[in-house]
Amino acid sequence: MSAIPEHHVVGRRTPRVDGEDKLTGRADYTVDHRLEGMLYGYPVPASIAHGTLEALELDAARAMPGVVDILHHGHFPDLHRSPNSMRQGNAVSEVRLPFEDDRIHYHGQYIALVVAETLAQARAAAFRVEARYHRNAGAMTGLAASDDEGEEVGQYTRGEPELAFGIAPVILDATYTMAAESHLQLEPHATLAEWREADQRLIVHESTQGVFYQRNALAHIFDLPPEQVEVISHYIGSGFGNKLFMWPHAVATAAAARLLGRPVKTVLPRQQDMMTTGHRPASRQRIRLGAELDGSLASIQHDSLTETSTIDRYVDACGGATPVAYACDSVATHQRILPVHHGSPCPMRAPGEASGLFALESAIDELAVALDMDPLALRLKNYAHQDPQRGLPWSSKHLDRCLESTAERFGWASRDPGIGNMRDGDEIIGQGMAAATWFAGRQPCAARVTLRADGVFVACGTQDIGTGTYTIVAQTVAELTGVPVARVEVRLGETGLPAGPLSGGSMTTASTLPAVAAAVRDALAALKEVATGPGGSFEGLDPAALDVAAGTLQGDSRQAGFAEILARHRLSDVTGEGSAAPADERQEYSFRSFGAHFVEVRWDPGISRLRVARVVSSIDVGRAINPVAARNQVEGAIVMGIGMALLEGLDYDPRDARLINANVSDYRIPVHADMPEIDVELLDYPDYRFNEFGARGIGEIGLTGIAAAISNAVYHATGKRLRDLPISVEKLMDRT
Amino acid sequence: MRTFAFARANSVARAVEHRQAELVSAFVAGGTTLLDLVKLDVMRPSRVIDITPLPLTTVERLPDDRLRIGALVTNTDLAYHPDVLADHPLLSQAILAGASTQVRNMATTGGNLMQRTRCPYFRDAAAACNKREPGSGCDALDGVNRMHAVLGASSECVAVHPSDMCVALAAIGATLTLHGPNGEREIDVADFHRLPGTTPHLEHDLDDELIVAVTLAPPLMPLGTAYVKLRDRASFEFALASAGAMLSLDEDLIGEARLALGGVATKPWRCREAEALLAGKRADTAAFEAAADLALADARPLTHNAFKIPLARQAIVRALRDAARRAREDDA
Amino acid sequence: MMETIEYSPEAAVSVHLTVNGVPVTAEVSPNAILLDVLREQLGLTGTKKGCDHGQCGACTVHVDGRAMNACLRLAVMCEGQAITTIEGLAEAGQLHPVQQAFLDHDAFQCGYCSPGQIMSAVALLEDPRVPGDIVTVREAMSGNLCRCGAYQNILAAIQDVRLRRHGQEGGDDA
Fold this sequence. Notes:
The complex is a heterotrimer of chains A (736), B (332) and C (174). Chain A is an alpha+beta fold and 736 residues long. Chain A folds into 3 domains: 186 residues, Alpha-Beta Complex (Aldehyde Oxidoreductase, domain 3); 298 residues, Aldehyde Oxidoreductase, domain 4; 140 residues, Aldehyde oxidase/xanthine dehydrogenase, molybdopterin binding domain (Aldehyde Oxidoreductase, domain 4). In chain A, strand 19, helix 12 and strand 20 form a beta-alpha-beta unit. Chain B has 12 helices and 12 strands. Chain B has a 5-stranded antiparallel β-sheet. The termini of chain B are far apart. By secondary structure, chain C is α+β, with helices and mostly antiparallel strands. Chain C is built from 5 helices and 6 strands, in the order βββαβββαααα. Chain C has a 5-stranded mixed β-sheet with strand order 3-2-6-4-5, with helices on both faces. In chain C, a hairpin with a 2-residue loop joins strand 2 and strand 3. In chain C, helix 2 crosses helix 5 and helix 3 packs parallel to helix 5. Chain C starts with a strand and ends with a helix. Chains A and B meet through helix 3 and helix 18 of A and helix 12 of B. Strand 1 of chain B pairs antiparallel with strand 1 of chain C, so a sheet runs across the interface.
């Protein structure tokens, strides 16, 4: 790890360029937008989870002050479904259109949208809508309440996993479950839709992680050319996956705006946000491991069952990392899904693999105990020096360095492996560890860069969901032009800009920056052409001979600022376009990020209180473009991981599948007081085989492995192997 | 959110008149319970009476040295009041263990006594709840009832009283001053909250009255106190089980003991039998455990909350232990 | 003595507030919530709605100097009171020291909870009754949820401001 040279901006701690707007209240989130003549939408949720809507009593609500219209099954335009294709970029979270029929598939499903002059009026009227239902018996309340093994949707096999398991001298066969989790991003989902009749344009402000996906889906749904749909999302009060793809509130709101000829804004109340806009589905995973006496893994089998809804087929692929996590010749994964009467699940931070690595990394710890081996040594013993699934070398893998560094900073060597042996007053100290990993991917991306007298303008239709995309784009431009970050204006989150990727999968950085760099180079080439052309500052010079530094072109012992060059030619600006897409690098290498979490818990058996006291992590994501924001991502993921391990679970009533803790109090996420001491190290091994900046992504990886590390530490403290998340107090107290 | 008429009372008498004048009316001070529940359509007052102008915002020391707390003293001001910290640290500890800074800044002493349960079925207007809608049934009884009561419940209602402050008041002992159409009367805090029985919608012994003051019993001396609140996350959450303990020690023998529980009962739960058992005993684990067992002898679990009984036992034992330690420290 | 005041459910009530130092009169209904009045009527959208039930802290404002959840407060009950929102912290374009510390310590990600976090932090730092150790600060800030999990940096920002203030005070003493 080397210091960043003075003139470099990439890799340097950079305060966020959008920070001042966010910290002063100026940042315009979707919920903050307001248009002239705007109406307010307020959805009415179904109070049952499985049945039929028999009748809606709307008269009382219609008579309320300010009510303009109420949309529902009997009063809704005839729209089309989105094709829901990832490949075509029009995926949606819930395929069913709002009010499509009278069937109720989940608690909270919209049965009406009240539209009124003010928010208060819309809300008051929504509470006056009365519904009569036919309740169906036999609601599927969740996989925990069912023996149904669902439907197989994917599998992978190499070697002879069953055979190897059968003859292995040491085996482990354990089942792990996780409750459904809510994203609980603090900005609720919101749509502000405007229909411009004159030019038949639909303009939608949406808190979304993917403006282009939503545009494309809306175009299909409203049967409009994509050019006539615009989606805007400048600031997003985070998403964690549930804002990747459109939900029905946006369709209902856009339909209302077109029907009524006035802009309509719908902000989901928190209860509805939690009921209708996705969650990480509950999972049940069986892991079977077979090992030699020296710890070599002979067989890994990972069978996963995850919930989906009755109206969508969402697959939370828990076994995604299992084939590549360890060097093992015989590996099998099976993925199944089970439809239940909940709203549709969707990706949630490290989808699939956060759940999968909880199971796998817990199982590895259990195997270490069975082998009487140190769990760190067991992981190093089965270290995958190349990708065991594809047989390709890793582009850059430093998991060994992560494990060693973390162990050293944590003080793993002084850990007493005996259960409950480490005490401090009333508390027993437990220490556990787990490995982390997340794939490194890229999506196609385009960008436009404009060099102007007062600085640089850069535009890309991706989004900043809080990860710091605005800032790293500015850093990239600053790096390549020498113009200070403060004079780089970044515009994101509009479909009117060059097409950018989803903010998801930890792919934004690696997708976006190469496109921005290409656009910068294109703009610089245009500027050099001007400067070396007739009457230019460098007339007659070969453009290739010009260097760029500090916002100037330099060559032939002279230099000229961008502004000066533009002024000399009476040009307002020069513009460059750039794009980037995954190339054939995947033919030669496998790309993944890696990391390690070491956790110390404190268990006070006298009052059955468990808390996470300390987390030490090392993360290998290549080059961190902005280390301050990157570290923040990992710290935040650790906090979320504490929630996953100890606190979080959506409670569906076991009788009728109604969601009973759809609020921010009864669904518990960590608060300030739950914060442990956190020590995150970002290794700095730029992965130039992946892209010119050496950056992979960092949004997800921190959440992988952390729940297992906590659970493993709990075992070390208590002797209880808790395979069901969240590890709530009653599980810790259970004497069996 | 439903509409309501609004009145601002300029005297206690006028406040009470306002309440009588309307079939469904509610006083509002901090608003942290009322507005939360109005938004959920769970409380539907047709008139809301703002009592914040009333002169009930001071903590005063009476001639007999007791502390008289105005009903509008905020939770924050009460918790940090020097006389409360000096005489009744348990009250301060319990208040600061509850809610959040913002809620404590808004919530008042009287409002905290009037706090409603957090039972999710009570808070869901579409669910069956005898407390919200008498005779509609109780969805919690066979539903998700992990958070519900193991003490004081009935077949009609198993909802927990959520207050931390009231646990301390139960342990300390207090008299409430109520002002009604027929003037003022006083009531022991222990008699204020009702058990649900067959009328869970009747939560308090109030007759169109306004709580105007809470007068605390004199402190025990020398005193050790502890409030142990056990919950899933570390803060801003209601208790799974909490115990407030006060002990006076004479050498190593317990003089007087006070014990009350939160998070496990349908009202703030004073454990008088356990207190009596402790008096005169050595302050040791055996005594604390015996007291805890007695306090929980009548506890009855529901489907998902059996753990609350051993958890409450642990809270009691730890609170008594810590209270005894502090009594010794203070003595030393 | 102040007159008893009564409004019908449909009344349009004139409420006189001082918002960020500026006298403001708002016409509100008796059941209007302070948060909605700030956001929808006064255009002060820096104060955020995260849960609308006092459970997340995103709507934290100062009412007569105290941090409160604007979502649980009737606007009519704020008659004559001074409300400070996130928009009122920076003076003459200069960030408040707590805002600056949040920027310096990267004490946010998506920024949606930040106005509430900052309002709570400012009130906390000005309340002499609350001890300044990190256990107490974490407890006192627990009414402000951050799902991005920037808690460690928020704590660092708060304690940084505290340290600088005490440093200044110490300097005066010396």
